[in-house]
């Protein structure tokens, strides 16, 4: 197995993002439309937070609704802002960080996605699923 492969080889580069001014209804629709579980929150492409689908489940009864259902409980979402629900203390990695290092971070933390940044600018996202797919390709 290759040991020094940079995360840039497996990260998602065309990242679905939210702005701080977006609402949680938009977030819910993006999660369902793109079948994703994590959305970075940016201000002028500078990473300022991460919103997970689990974050939304914590504030609503969305988990009681069919995953394919496009109906959203707008009333609950209007009670909170993206900023109130998103994670603000982020761990980030650079495109040069190795896949092994990313796997070590993800395996030791309680989250499943890392923003990939160059300076303060978001350039990608890597998830536990990306790591698993990479490892499966090695066999």
Automatic annotation (TrEMBL):
SMART domains registered for this protein in UniProt: CBS (SM00116)
UniProt keyword list: CBS domain
UniProt cross-references to PROSITE patterns, sorted A to Z: CBS (PS51371)
Gene3D superfamilies for this protein: CBS-domain
Superkingdom per UniProt: Bacteria
The protein, known as: CBS domain-containing protein
Family matches, as InterPro entries: CBS_dom, CBS_dom_sf, Diverse_CBS-Domain
């Amino acid at each position: 197995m290759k040991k020094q492969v940079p995360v840039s080889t497996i990260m998602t580069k065309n990242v679905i993002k939210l702005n701080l001014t977006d609402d949680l209804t938009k977030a819910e629709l993006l999660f369902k439309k793109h079948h994703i579980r994590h959305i970075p929150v940016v201000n002028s492409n500078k990473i300022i937070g991460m919103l997970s689908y689990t974050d939304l489940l914590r504030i609503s009864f969305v988990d009681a609704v069919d995953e394919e259902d496009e109906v959203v409980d707008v009333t609950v979402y209007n009670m909170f802002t993206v900023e109130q629900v998103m994670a603000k203390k982020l761990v980030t990695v650079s495109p040069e960080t190795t896949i092994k290092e990313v796997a070590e971070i993800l395996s030791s933390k309680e989250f499943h996605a890392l923003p990939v940044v160059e300076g303060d600018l978001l350039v990608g996202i890597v998830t536990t699923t990306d790591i698993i797919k990479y490892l499966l390709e090695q066999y």
